[in-house]
Structures are given as structure tokens and as C-alpha cells.
Amino acid sequence: MNDPGEEDDRPAGVEWIRWLLTTDDSAVVYVREVLSSVAVVLVVGLLLFTVSGVWPPLVAIESPSMEPNIQQGDLVFVMEEHRFAGDAATTAGGASTGVVTRETGQGNGYTEFSEPGDVIVFRPDGSQGATPIIHRAHLWVDEGENWYDRANPDYVGTADDCEELPACPAPNAGFITKGDNPATNQQYDQVAGIARVPVQPDWVIGTAEFRIPLLGNIRLLFSYLFFGGDQVLTTVVAAGTVGAAGVTLVARD
């Protein structure tokens, strides 16, 4: 049977809330700190989403395919491609794709991450289940186009003409893409088989805007420790630091 005196000592109403916020009880302090950390990270995530228009707005880079411009282990902020898109963005079907290709950037001086053209995050071949890729958009090709003569001969492998070049003539309109790293990505994605066909605009998740060095390693470590690196979480809470802001893994070779 409870002591009536103990019940009288318990806070009630507003006092209960005040007690939760001010008590030195170790268990309550622990829960309070965890909840406050989660709340802060969620607010940060929502602010980033408001700015970027993409969820998740942060991507952790798990391969060296974009080095030296984007490093493995970086955390990269991604923005919806149509936000702040300039006149240099490729137009398809009378509408802007929001993406500037390397070909166009070389002509007008537009650069991102030290080289001409936009770096895009996209779903290879439109697959919802595949790990997104972060590579540079090199060319825009129209459906049925023989794009061999526009291609950089260093990136087409041993092909001597369109007939020997994969995805040529182009089976669909889209972007020809490639990682910046000359050691690991010596051919266009559509030649190397990283993406079988040109990247359609609706497969593009967004454009990479800036990187935070090394911070993506937190997300990568979390994935490898708990999921062996095979399962991708689109939202995680990593000790109240990066995760709940929304982080996914991108950029396999």
C-alpha cells in the first residue's frame, strides 16, 4: 500500500513538466539529453530539406569514383536540380532539366567541384532499389542519336564507331555520365556498364552542391557495423550527430 505522503510529494500538472526539465535524476537526464539531441538533428534535417528540396539532403560517399574532386568518406549536400538552375541547363522537350553538362560547361565556363558541368546523383537505369550513383553529367543525347563523334575518344574504350559503342544509337534521351577519377573510371558509365543507358531526367535525384570532408565516414561506419554495408538506410539517428538529417550512400564504382 502506497504511503499517502509519497503521493502528495509527486509533481502534478505543470509541475510535472517542470520536474522533468529540471530534475537531476540520472535516468531522466539521460532520456532528456537523447530526446533533445534527436530533436536538434531533426530540426537540422528539416531545414536542409527546406533548402534542398531533396530527401535525404545529404549523401555519404562510399567509393573513390569522384576523386580527387569528391573524396570517399565525404558528406555531400544535394539540391533538387531545378532549384536555381540557370540558362545553361540542358533543355529537353521544351523544359529545363536543371542540369548543365560538361560539354556545355566547357563552352561557358560553368564548373562544379573544379571541373565543367554538374555532378548529379541518380538512380542507375531508374532502379528504385539500387544504390544511387554520384557522377558528372558529360553529354546530353537525344533518342536515336549517334553520339560517337561527340564523345571523348578517351572514354569510349575500344569502340571505333557507333555500332561498337554500347547505348549507341541512344536507346533513350538522357545524360551520358562518368566519374571524375581517371584511375577507376576510365570510360563513360554507359560504356563500362555502370549505367546501361543514358540517364533520364526523372532518374536524377539532384545535383551535388558542396562537400564536407570526412563527415560521411560516420554514416559509412554505421552502415558497415550494423548492416555489413549491404543495406541502405535513408534516415538514421547516429548518436545525435549526422543521421537524422537524412543520409544515404552513393557512388559505387
TrEMBL record:
CDD domains hit by this protein: S26_SPase_I
Annotated transmembrane regions: 34-55
Subcellular locations according to the entry: Membrane
A single GO cellular-component term on record: membrane
Protein origin, superkingdom: Archaea
Signal sequence, renumbered to the chain: none
Annotated keywords: Membrane, Transmembrane, Transmembrane helix
InterPro entries, alphabetized: LexA/Signal_pep-like_sf (IPR036286), Peptidase_S26 (IPR019533), Peptidase_S26B (IPR001733)
Name of protein: S26 family signal peptidase
